[in-house]
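Annotated sample (chain length 203).
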Amino acid sequence: MDRVGPHDAHVPAELDESDDSTRDSTQGGGGSLVVWMLASLFCVAVLALAVSHAPARIRLIGLLSIGFGLLVGWLIVWLANVFEVRPSLWTLFVFAASLACGGFVLSTLQTFQLDTAMRQLSKEEELAAKLMREIDRQRGVVKADETVVQRFREFLSRRVRQLGAWPSPWPEVFWSGECLLTGIAAGGLSVRRASASSRSQPE
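Output written by the structure step:
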């Protein structure tokens, strides 16, 4: 039988410790990290579409953005625990904030499409719209996507009517602030939950 010296017996133990520390830092490998990101993206997209169909009394300015961000932050950390991934706090914050902002924008655009489809112009409004289009056509200043942009800006103006009459560009400013607030809420909650979870785990 071959004799194994003390030095030879000590090498596999060091290799085993290094392998364990690598596994602890990755928690499932790169494949699980990609699956976690894709699952988070899918869930946030579904959540955004569901929010766009919510009643108007729920989609309040300010409260909706904060609630959506907090829900996204909680969901991302929950999915990270499900797939056993442990991203860094900075990566988690950036990913949660970006995903929440994108989901909020998607929800707003979907709400805008639903509002456009359900909104019926009166005869007077339709006549005025045709007159404005004819004037713009004569001036030659109308672009291909200008009508959609104008309709979206009018939609944002109708959103802030619950806060009063705010002329442009205030509706756009409010919406941009909501997007930023959504990202901060999602990133902050995700980092806080991840930090609390790591402290509660036994060393």
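Annotation: The helical segments are 6-26, 29-52, 63-82, 89-118, 123-139, 146-159, 170-200.
Annotation: Residues 1-28 have pLDDT under 50 and may be disordered.
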